[in-house]
Inverse folding.
């Protein structure tokens, strides 16, 4: 049977209330092609109205977290559960249909992840894919919509393993510097370097990863030390 796709289309218009204000208004649309499906869980357990509200809330949350204007970065990244292409992403309705558990919560988490993918910077596609997916899952984590299937904190073999592994690592780094993920994302507008971690936190990313893993191997989990003040380079 042909896989079903639930289309979530995000479009935005640049509207400033005053000449001195940045344009921030976003128009969100949800296109549902599952309505003719027998017993569709999207319609029964999520609903068009909730999907639209979640999409709008997620976009606002991403803007707030990244503290950036709504200049749309170009994306060429295609995750499994949902695909993202520019200002449009598609959620796999077959995945939602077969999901075991609270599908509404899982759907909301996916929306937050994919909304981050629409608006985040990628260093002109030079940043590690694990960092890109990790930042998106960090948004999902910070919004309190993690997946029940995520591994526990302290999991992973490398800092750039991606998705939830990276999200938890970014959470650890964010305790060292307020607004760390926002600052890191801003630095990735045109390029990427591992040195960004040193600039922002005063430690290499490998040193930070080692400290993070060690903190979860201790009986008493250690709180990360506060990073020294560093000026963000333009």
């Amino acid at each position: 049977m042909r896989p079903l796709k639930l289309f979530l289309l995000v479009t935005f218009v640049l509207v400033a209330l005053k000449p001195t204000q940045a344009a921030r208004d976003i128009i969100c649309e949800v296109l549902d092609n599952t309505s003719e499906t027998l017993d569709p869980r999207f319609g029964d357990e999520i609903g068009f109205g909730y999907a639209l509200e979640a999409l709008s809330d997620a976009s606002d949350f991403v803007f707030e977290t990244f503290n950036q204007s709504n200049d749309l970065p170009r994306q060429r990244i295609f995750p499994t559960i949902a695909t993202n292409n520019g200002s449009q992403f598609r959620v796999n309705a077959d995945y939602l249909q077969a999901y075991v558990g609270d599908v509404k919560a899982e759907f909301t988490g996916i929306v937050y992840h994919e909304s981050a993918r629409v608006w985040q910077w990628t260093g002109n596609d030079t940043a590690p894919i694990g960092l890109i997916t990790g930042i998106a899952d960090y948004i999902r984590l910070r919004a309190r919509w993690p997946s029940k299937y995520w591994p526990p904190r302290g999991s992973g073999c490398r800092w750039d393993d991606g998705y939830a592994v990276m999200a938890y690592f970014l959470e650890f780094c964010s305790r060292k510097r307020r607004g760390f993920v926002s600052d890191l994302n801003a630095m990735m507008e045109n390029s990427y370097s591992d040195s960004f971690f040193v600039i922002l936190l005063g430690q290499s990313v490998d040193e930070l990863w080692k400290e993070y893993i060690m903190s979860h191997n201790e009986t008493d989990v250690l709180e990360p030390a506060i990073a020294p003040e560093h000026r963000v380079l333009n």
